[in-house]
UniProtKB/TrEMBL annotation:
Organism classification: Bacteria, Bacillati, Bacillota, Bacilli, Lactobacillales
Protein family: Belongs to the 5-formyltetrahydrofolate cyclo-ligase family.
Recorded catalytic activity of this chain's protein: (6S)-5-formyl-5,6,7,8-tetrahydrofolate + ATP = (6R)-5,10-methenyltetrahydrofolate + ADP + phosphate
SUPFAM superfamilies: NagB/RpiA/CoA transferase-like
Coiled-coil portions: none
Pfam families: 5-FTHF_cyc-lig
InterPro entries xrefs: FTHF_cligase (IPR002698), FTHF_cligase-like_sf (IPR024185), NagB/RpiA_transferase-like (IPR037171)
Organism the protein comes from: Streptococcus sobrinus
Highest taxon in the source lineage: Bacteria
Protein name: 5-formyltetrahydrofolate cyclo-ligase
Cofactor: Mg(2+)
Length: 179
C-alpha cells in the first residue's frame, strides 16, 4: 500500500472510533507516558494540539503543567518549517488546517527540549511513522538530540517501508488490552 492509501485508511478508522473506547485507550496511554522514564526525567515536553480523532493531548498537557514542567506546542510555517513555542492557552489561533497554534513566533531553543511527543497516522514496529504528509516533524527531528515518544491506537500499527528521509520515534506507546 502507498503512504497516501495508508493515510486515508487510518484516518477513516480513527474517525470511526467509539468515543468511550477511545477515552479508555487515551487514559491507558496517558498512564504509560506519565510513568515512563522519558517523561519523568524531562523538564520540557513538546507535544501537539490534537484533532478530536487523535490521541487527546489535553490531559497530558494538563498533567505536565501540574508537574511543573514546561509545555511546548508547534507553530508551522511555509516550506514545512516548524518551531515549538510555549503553550499559553489564551494565545492560540486556528490555522487553515483546522488546528490550534500559538500566535507567538518565539521559538524555544531545540537543544533545551527534553522530550517530543510526536503525532502520526501510522507507525511500523521500528518506530517509523506516516504523518499527514507535509514533513514538518521529519525535518524538525533530523538533528534533535532529545527523546521522542508517540501514543497510538491499535489501528495505527501497520507494516510499511520507511523512506530514507523518515526519522523514527524512539518509543511508541500502544494500547494493550487487559483481560
Amino acid at each position: 500500500m502507498l503512504k497516501k492509501e495508508i493515510r486515508q485508511t487510518i484516518l477513516r478508522q480513527l474517525k470511526a472510533q467509539d468515543k468511550e473506547r477511545k477515552a479508555e485507550i487515551d487514559k491507558s496511554l496517558l498512564e504509560q507516558v506519565l510513568t515512563s522514564p522519558e517523561y519523568r526525567e524531562a523538564q520540557t515536553l513538546a507535544t501537539y494540539l490534537a484533532f478530536d480523532f487523535e490521541y487527546n493531548t489535553q490531559a497530558l498537557i494538563n498533567q505536565t503543567k501540574k508537574d511543573g514542567k514546561v509545555v511546548l506546542v508547534p507553530k508551522t510555517y511555509p516550506k514545512s518549517q516548524m518551531i515549538f513555542t510555549e503553550y499559553i492557552p489564551d494565545e492560540l489561533e486556528m490555522t487553515k488546517f483546522g488546528i490550534w497554534e500559538p500566535k507567538s513566533d518565539q521559538a524555544f531553543n531545540k537543544d533545551k527540549i527534553d522530550l517530543i511527543h510526536v503525532p502520526g497516522l501510522a507507525f511500523n514496529n521500528e518506530g517509523f511513522r506516516i504523518g499527514f504528509g507535509a514533513g514538518f516533524y521529519d525535518r524538525y527531528l533530523e538533528d534533535f538530540q532529545g527523546e521522542t515518544i508517540s501514543t497510538i491506537y491499535p489501528c495505527q500499527e501497520i507494516d510499511f517501508q520507511a523512506d530514507s528521509h523518515d526519522i523514527p520515534v524512539r518509543k511508541v506507546f500502544t494500547y494493550a488490552q487487559r483481560f
